[in-house]
Each structure stands twice: as C-alpha cells, then as structure tokens.
Amino acid sequence: MSAEAVAFHRFTKAFGGRKAVDDLTLSCERGKILGMLGPNGAGKSTAMRGLVGLLRPTSGTATVFGRHFAELRDPARTVGVHMDGLGFEAGISGRRHLQILSMAAGMPKSRPDQLLEIVGLEQEGRKRVKQYSTGMRQRLGLAAALVGDPELLVLDEPANGLDPEGIHWLRRFLRKERDAGRTIVVSSHQLGELEQIVDDIAVIKRSLLYVGSLDGLTGSGTHTLEDRYLELVVDTMRGKG
Amino acid sequence: MSVPVRQIRADVLKALSGPTLLTLSSLVIVVPLLIVFMSGLVDGLAFVGSAEATRTLLPIGVAGSLGCAFYGSYLVTRDDYYRGMERAFLMASPRTVFTSRVVVAALIGLAFSTAGFLLWTVATAAMLRSHDRELRIGAEVLPLAMGNLFAGALAAAIGCGIGWVVRNYYVAVVVLLILPAIIAAPMLARLRDVERFLPVGAVAGLGGVKMDGLLAPAGAGLVLAGWTVLALAAGWFALRRRRQV
Known about the structure:
Chain A contains nine helices and nine strands. Chain A is an alpha/beta fold. The model of chain A has no long low-confidence stretch (mean pLDDT 90).
C-alpha cells in the first residue's frame, strides 16, 4: 500500500482556456495534517475536487492511497469529504441525514448518535436542517465526512461560518482526528489557526509556491505563517508584474 | 453487505424521509380524481348499471402512475435542488448511484401504485354509492390490479430516467405533470392511433381503461417497457456526459 495518503502529480485543470490549477505536484504522508493555503481563486477547491473524483483533471493525476478515487472499492470507508457544494436537504433532520449516510457506508445503527456527539450536535439531532445555524451545518458536514470512519479527511474551508468558540472546537477536533491516525487535508484562510494544527503546508496560487513542513516555512517559528505566506503570494504577483 | 445493496437501503430510507412524501404520494389519487371529475365521467354513471359503472371508473386509477413517475424523478431532482448529489458520488460510484435510484424508484412506484389501487377502489365504491350504484368486482380485477402495479413501477423508472436528464425539479413538473395533461390527454381523445404507442396511452392500455383503440394490456406493457429502457438510457448518458467535467 502507498506510503502517501494523497498525491498530486502534474495535476492540471483548465476550464475553457483558463487554467485553474497548473502542474501541481505534491503529496501528504499518512497520519499528517496538510494545510492548503492560497488566495481566493487559487485553485485549492479545484484541486480538492479533483482529488475526490468530482472533476477530471485536464492532465496529470490525483490519487488517494495510490489509487484514483474512482478505483476505490468502498470510497465512503476510505475518504471523508466536507466542502462547499455538498448540501443537506432542509426538511430532513440532521440525525436522519446521518442515518442515511451511515446506511450507505455500511456502518452500525449507533453511528449517527456517535457522530452527533463527536461534533457536539447531540441536542440538535432531531431538528430539521433548516433550523440549523451556519456553524451547526458546518458541524453536520464534518459529521457526514466522518460517517464511514475514513482514513483520510478532505476538508475545504471547514472554519467558514464558525464563531470563535466553533473555531476553537474545530482545532481540537482536527488534532483529535489526527491523533486517532487519520490523515487530513484541510484548506483555510484562518492562517493563525492552521499554524497551530498542521504538520505540512502547501501554498498554491494556480501552481505550487511551496510545499514542505510548517517549520521549514516559518524557520521553526522565526517567522509567522502569515508573514511567510504573504511574502510567497506577493512575490508571485510581483514576478508576474 | 455490498456497496450497491447498502446504497439501495440508504436510498429507500431517503425516499421515505422528508415532509414532501405525503404531498407527492397523494398524486396517485388526486390525478385520477381530477380526470374523473373534469371529463364528466362521473355524470354518466346514472345511465349505466353497477357492473358497467365499475368497469368505467376502476381502471381510471392507473392515471395515478403519473404521480409515481413524478416521485421517480424527485429521487434525483431533490438532490439537485438541495445540492446533495455530489455527496452521493462520494459514497459510491456513479453506476451504483444511478442503478440504486432506478431500483428504488421502481420499488416506490410499486408501493405507491399498490396503495393507490386500494384507495382508488374505495373512492370508486364511494362515487358509485353516491349515484345509487354498487362496486361490482370479480376475477377481472386481478389483471387490472397487476396492470396498475406494473404501470406504477415502470412509470416511476421512466420518471427517474427523466430526472437524471433534466435534474431540475420545476422542469420535471412541466415534463411529467403539465405536458401529459395538456398534450397527452387531448391526444388520447383525438389521436389515439398515435397516443397508444406513447407513454400515457400505454399506461392507459396497461391499466385496462375502457377506451376503443388502446393496445391490449400485454402490448401496452411492452410499449411502456420500451419507453422505460429509452428513458433510462437517456438518463445514464446524461449522467455520463455531465461526469466528464
């Protein structure tokens, strides 16, 4: 089995004539948290969608545990995904959503209640999703990603819509999942938060600007992630100018 | 348990979840009622005997298949409306998701048409009683019931195929509920030679509707099966094309 949980190899995706992601090559080892950073429109979500088979690359490959997503025999048990564009039917309760997903993933009947407890929604499980706040929907999305107890979590902007308490909770959640042996690929604009949880960083602006350890980027704490990120992104803009 | 079986179980649970189930399932009885009252069929009951009146009214229940078709499409369009379809593709392959929805549509169609036939029999008895007639059913009710069930299951599968093609809930309303009412119904009255080979005419033939020129149930069943294959093929190709992105 592949030592890399996630690998992009010369991954390129163009929409019409415009390249959203260009020649991306990076990987993430098992059991680590990889933070994907980049300005809006940098191609982070496109790369993540390509990784989980929701779009096809124009060229190159994206694999999970050495395989294309479409080749996974039981995808729900291998990869859990939370990203914008994965909605919930408003008239159905959060618990029922998790029951449906749990059944599709072949998990025991107790799984929905376990998940509601993990994401702190045990009191709200029987409410319809239309009664949920944005933060509660984010938590339900994370529960849905965990439903098949997958080895890999792919989370695109999971902190969106969370209040400070929610962001604090998310940080603890991600650490706990990593400590449980899961590999996590997470994108976020919350640089301060990412700095506290990630092992490795990939900075993308259509193509790869940096990939490596967080310590390597920040000089083991000599610089902040925000300073180094801004230098990388601004340098690219100057280079283009 | 295999991924396809798990997916089917999950899709059955989803099909039975949500506040729209009761509203949409009521179409299996509302559509036949509308046809009976708008066509004036009920006024003619006073001029025929109980057996003839039963033979006229009872087969109209097969029109509830339109409700089955619409619910079949809803199994797909609800996910498009609530942006939930991609979540399904993260749980299983597109082939599994497609097959599961079709199987569940047929099962739901079978359940709806069974309930619809029973309810319509009760409604028929009530309408007959209000015209001093009584429900007269004998052995001929069995092929009638079988025709209803078969029509419901196939109509739901056709609806599911159309759902994959159009994806949009409101477009499905137009294609599966409005167009049959404004095109197929008049054609059934004036262009029966053509309409009997179209889905609505085939459903009427399969349900044993008392109307000259319709195909016999066996022939109508074959025609409807052909439309089902066509709708599912169109749905599958639409999904494949969309997944090339």
